[in-house]
Amino acid sequence: MSWQHRDNSCSQIECLIASGADDTMLDDYKTFDAKGNVGGKLKTIARQRKILLERVHENERRIEYLDYLTWQLEHTDA
């Protein structure tokens, strides 16, 4: 489900929490928000996005190992 289809009831902080942002990141975001620093808020969001994307790529590599192991077992004379 893309963000366009979600309801708008998620506050900015709630969205960050739902994304798994840690307390430090939340504090940074709140500080930027209090100062009206949109650029800082965007950098904080980008930092969390990068963390999540790195986890996705790490898990993709793990899946590739499992796929290779499966292929090996299916194509090896047992």
Low-confidence stretches: none
- What is the CA-CA span between the terminal residues? 43 Å
Oligomer: single chain
Count of extended strands: 0
**Mean pLDDT metric:** 91
Give the overall shape, derived from the CA principal axes: rod-shaped
Q: How big is the Rg?
A: 19 Å
Per DSSP, the total helix count is 3
Main beta-sheet annotation: none
How much β-strand is present in the residues?
under 5%
Structural class: mainly alpha
Order of helices and strands: HHH
Proportion in helices: over 70%
Task: Provide a descriptive summary of the structure in words.
With 78 residues, the chain is mainly alpha-helical. It is 72% helix and 0% strand. It has 3 helices and no strands. The protein has helices at residues 12-18, 23-34, 38-74. Helix 2 runs antiparallel to helix 3 (38-74). The protein is rod-shaped.
What can be said about this structure in brief?
This protein has 78 residues and is an all-alpha fold.
Present the secondary structure layout.
Layout (H helix, E strand, L loop, with lengths): L11 H7 L4 H12 L3 H37 L4
Helix pairs in contact: 2-3
Task: Using brief descriptors, characterize the structure shown.
mainly alpha, rod-shaped, single chain, 78 residues
